[in-house]
Structure formats: C-alpha cells, structure tokens
Amino acid sequence: NAGVTQTPKFRVLKTGQSMTLLCAQDMNHEYMYWYRQDPGMGLRLIHYSVGEGTTAKGEVPDGYNVSRLKKQNFLLGLESAAPSQTSVYFCASSYSEGPGQPQHFGDGTRLSIL
Amino acid sequence: RKEVEQDPGPFNVPEGATVAFNCTYSNSASQSFFWYRQDCRKEPKLLMSVYSSGNEDGRFTAQLNRASQYISLLIRDSKLSDSATYLCVKGGGNKLTFGTGTQLKVEL
Question: What is the rounded average pLDDT of the residues A43-50?
Fold first, then answer.
C-alpha cells in the first residue's frame, strides 16, 4: 500500500534555483494538498486541488506554483528558491465526500535553501 | 488569534498516567474535528475523529464542545510509545486547519 508518495525526500538548493516536488497518490482521492511545516508554526497550507485540472491558493501561496494534470499527481514548483522556503513540505490527499474529510499524508520532503 | 490553539507543552508524564489535552478553535462554522499524531520528523497521521457525543478508541477518548468551542483528548494508561506531538485539527469546506501541536513525553 503506497498511499501518498513524495519525491524527493531531501534536497539542498542554492538561492535562485528552481525545482519541482512530486506527490503521487494511489487511493483515487479527488483532493490533494501541499503544506509546509516550520518550527512553532504548525502546518500551513500552500496550495490545494479539488480535482484534476484545478488548483487553488492556500494560506501561504507566494513563491510557489502547482499543477494537477493527472488525478493521481500534484506537483509543487519553486521558480526561484529563497532561504525563507527552507522547510519540511508535506503532501496530503483526501476524498471529496463530506466536509473536512481526514487527510492522508506523505512522509515529507526536507528542503534546504542556502 | 489563531484559528486553532493548543498548549505546546511538553507534557512529561510517567508511564501509566492519564493525560488530557485541550484545544480551542474559532469559527463556529467548522464542521469536523480530528486529532492527528506526529512523531518526530515524520508525517502527521490520523489518530481519531472527534464527535459531539464523544468517542473512544481504546485508551483514547475525544470530546467536542461546540458551545465553548473546544476539543479534548484523553489518554489513559500512557505508554512510552504514546510519546509524540498531538495536533488538533478542524475542518470545513475543502480544507483542514491544524494547531501547532502539543508535545507529550511519556517516561519510565
């Protein structure tokens, strides 16, 4: 049971570099989410998607872009990485039925921007 | 004011103790509530949903008080393996809002 898979697990970037984080889920979930988690801040929603081809902004979207070309994949892009984007990034997915469905998380990507 | 507020702890308790965490939330329109558990450097995992009538899962009991806008989690007979951070979560619409977590350390 793969569930939610994130790649890569770790990455170090230099300021100004770009990269894409990949999230894949095999549970046929409609909804997918990208969060960042920083010490003392808790999980903060970056962007989310309620279905293939749709995306929406979350609480902290600046500096990130996303795409949901296939139902099972949700990509998070950093066009020009900044040290403030050093964080642990989690992807999550959930069913669409009902309000506030519980989300299932990937095991995270630890990203450092130098 | 944060939408979900928790005491960060840490709560240091001996093995076998009973410990309770509370969490307060704003926005009475919130429709669903959960407790998640997060181990150090791991992903959050759903511990249990929270219902107004109160619900129990083994040693864990969750309670929701909509009038006072708080959620509680009670852990009985604490185990060393219960050591983790417990996240209070509220849901509404398409999104969940997470508290910053309460750290529990169960000691011998």
Answer: 95
